[in-house]
Design brief:
- The chain has 258 residues and is α+β, with helices and mostly antiparallel strands.
- It has a single domain, classed as 4'-phosphopantetheinyl transferase domain (Ribosomal Protein L22, Chain A), CATH 3.90.470.
- The chain is built from 4 helices and 15 strands.
- The two termini are 18 Å apart.
- The N terminus and C terminus are likely disordered.
């Protein structure tokens, strides 16, 4: 890993992919500049995922075999130690990876109408989350998107997805565009944590990612990296996030170019 190129947070250009070691999670970002008419962004993201997994497993891309658990969560039957999750929004995507710990990631483009988001929050969100959203009407759309990404990332890590009630837990981010949010369940005790940040690119995105460590084990430390396309338009918002080491490769990393 080369020298840091910026401060707050620590930004690194890394090549090749960051090493995946015990106790450390990796979240990768990628923006797809050109999507052929006959190929969807979902297909592009899935292809990129297979390339990343193949690189970490040191096997040909065509040998990557992804199955789905009974809950629908994707996994690698022949390499169960490598846990991963994929999300895409707009023309961008994110991948979370970790050794032996379930992970979840969600990337959401900030878009839509405030009235529609308020209706969703009132129907599905925890009462404390609804009150938190109401504290800043001017930034409601961004706050809603960040909150949604936090909740979905956690549910994906748990393996339940949206089959679990969104109101069954509460995850309110601290102040700022990046940080770590505690997942609270009833009774009000911490059940885990999810990292989050806002991402600047052709559009504005909210990103959230987390892992579920085994009981009595410390929280997972995270590295966040951007696999940029040549114009380099996708980058994490420059905000204080001391818990996360942020990585920015200067050029796409072979052979994968979240």
């Amino acid at each position: 890993m080369s020298r840091p190129v910026a401060k707050s947070p620590s930004i690194y250009r890394c090549s090749p992919l960051p090493e995946l070691i015990e106790g450390v999670g990796i979240c990768l970002l990628r923006h797809f500049d050109e999507v052929p008419a006959q190929v969807t962004v979902r297909q592009q993201a899935q292809r990129w995922l297979h390339q990343v997994l193949a690189a970490y497993l040191a096997i040909p891309v065509e040998h990557v075999s992804i199955a789905r658990a009974a809950t629908g969560k994707p996994w690698l039957p022949e390499h169960a130690w490598l846990r991963f999750n994929l999300s895409h929004s707009g023309h961008s995507a994110a991948i979370a990876l970790c050794r032996d710990h379930e992970v979840g990631v969600d990337l959401e483009q900030v878009s839509g109408k405030v009235a529609a988001k308020k209706a969703i929050a009132q129907r599905f969100f925890h009462p404390q989350e609804q009150r938190w959203l109401a504290l800043d009407e001017a930034n409601y759309l961004t706050r809603f998107t960040q909150l949604w990404s936090l909740k979905e990332a956690w549910l994906k890590a748990c393996g339940t997805g949206l089959t679990r009630s969104l109101a069954s837990f509460c995850v309110i981010p601290p102040q700022g565009e990046s940080g770590v949010a505690q997942v609270m369940v009833e009774p009000p005790v911490s059940h885990g944590q999810v990292h989050y940040c806002q991402v600047n690119g052709p559009a504005r995105f909210c990103l959230a990612y987390g892992a579920i460590p085994a009981p009595q084990q410390p929280s997972i430390r995270w590295q966040l990296g951007c696999h940029q396309t040549e114009d380099g338009r996708l980058s994490p918002a420059a905000q204080e996030q001391p818990e996360v080491e942020t990585s920015l490769p200067k050029v796409p990393v072979a052979p994968v170019s979240t």
